[in-house]
């Protein structure tokens, strides 16, 4: 299966972290925080994009801010649980695991500068490819396919939930080869004809086009998901309350207003397709919890066990009701 057991993934990540970081039982001092960053592109690129933002964070909060970059989603979850990181920018699915297993808590979320609240998972193919969604799902093991990290919302969870499971297909039995990579890796591989198709997301394609890197011009989209929620910012629940308030004030005021300084800050965020940050809590993750429950329901139906199907349906209904109640409380339209 594409989704290996969480325990195995976390165990491997823990070993890797221990090897490179040493003992980590003691929490960070009150004047230092470590901010984890999901490397959807190369770490070098992400460091360049985030460096001025982290410098602004240091200036406004008075805290020393240390970055922690990783393209491995599980390592971000393990690092927070081991108190090697204090807060970070997560995808929705990896953020959900950080909340469940690493004492994490959502306190803010990003919003897109375009005004569109959310993004979409996509499947891309080379621009001149004759491959269609129908031929992709023939599953004749003739194609090489790229997928995301197993904890990636748009790279794996969304295409499994909305594309492969409803079609009764499994990537590992559909394709000649299934390779795992981040969004940039998969985009480059498809654009250069190294992969026949791959998952990606609309934000990654738009950023590539805005930066005039050229790869997005050499691919086309043959499938897209429903709109997915923007990314959460998560901190450890046990952070010092004074530190929490400094961080909260930074995120909720950063790039806001009409001053030249706010404009400079918005330009920093624009390179990441972030318009700013809004307050949020763990209810932000209800949509991805529903996706997870929907995936599990599809897998249960595929297995044919009546008891498991009923249990999965009950859990799906429960999460869906919880999401609708949260949206009603927030005054959002039902969907």
From TrEMBL:
**Which controlled-vocabulary keywords does the entry list?**
Signal
The answer to whether keyword Chaperone applies is no
Q: Where does the signal sequence lie?
A: 1-18
A GO cellular component annotation in the UniProt record? ATP-binding cassette (ABC) transporter complex
GO terms (BP aspect): transmembrane transport
Read off the Pfam families from this record.
Phosphonate-bd
Q: Which InterPro entries match?
A: PhnD
> Which family, according to the similarity comment?
Belongs to the phosphate/phosphite/phosphonate binding protein family.
What is the name listed in the Swiss-Prot or TrEMBL entry for this protein? Answer: Phosphate/phosphite/phosphonate ABC transporter substrate-binding protein
- Source organism per UniProt: Caulobacter radicis
């Amino acid at each position: 299966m594409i989704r290996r057991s969480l325990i195995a993934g976390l165990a491997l990540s823990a070993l890797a972290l221990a090897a490179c970081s040493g003992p980590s039982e003691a929490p960070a001092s009150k004047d230092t925080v470590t901010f984890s960053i999901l490397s959807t592109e190369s770490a070098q690129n992400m460091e360049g994009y985030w460096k001025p933002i982290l410098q602004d964070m240091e200036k406004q909060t008075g805290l020393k801010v240390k970055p922690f970059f990783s393209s491995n989603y599980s390592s971000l979850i393990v690092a927070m649980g081991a108190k090697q990181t204090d807060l970070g920018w997560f995808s929705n699915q990896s953020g959900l695991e950080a909340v469940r297993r690493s004492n994490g808590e959502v306190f803010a979320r990003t919003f897109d500068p375009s005004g569109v609240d959310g993004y979409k998972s996509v499947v891309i193919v080379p621009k001149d490819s004759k491959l269609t969604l129908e031929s992709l799902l023939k599953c004749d093991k003739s194609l090489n396919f790229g997928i995301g990290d197993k904890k990636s919302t748009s790279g794996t969870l969304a295409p499994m939930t909305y594309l492969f499971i409803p079609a009764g297909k499994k990537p590992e039995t559909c394709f000649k080869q299934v390779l795992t990579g981040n969004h940039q890796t998969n985009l480059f591989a498809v654009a250069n004809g190294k992969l026949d198709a791959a998952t990606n997301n609309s934000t990654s394609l738009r950023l590539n086009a805005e930066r005039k890197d050229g790869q997005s011009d050499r691919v086309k989209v043959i499938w897209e998901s429903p709109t997915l929620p923007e990314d959460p910012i998560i901190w450890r629940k046990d952070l010092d309350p004074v530190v929490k308030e400094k961080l909260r004030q930074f995120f909720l005021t950063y790039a806001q207003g009409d001053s030249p300084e706010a404009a400079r800050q918005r330009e920093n965020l624009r390179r990441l397709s972030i318009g700013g940050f809004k307050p949020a809590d763990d209810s932000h993750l209800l949509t991805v919890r529903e996706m997870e429950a929907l995936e599990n329901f599809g897998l249960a139906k595929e297995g044919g066990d009546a008891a498991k199907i009923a249990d999965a349906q009950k859990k799906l209904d429960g999460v869906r009701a919880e999401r609708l109640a949260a949206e009603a409380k927030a005054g959002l339209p039902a969907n």
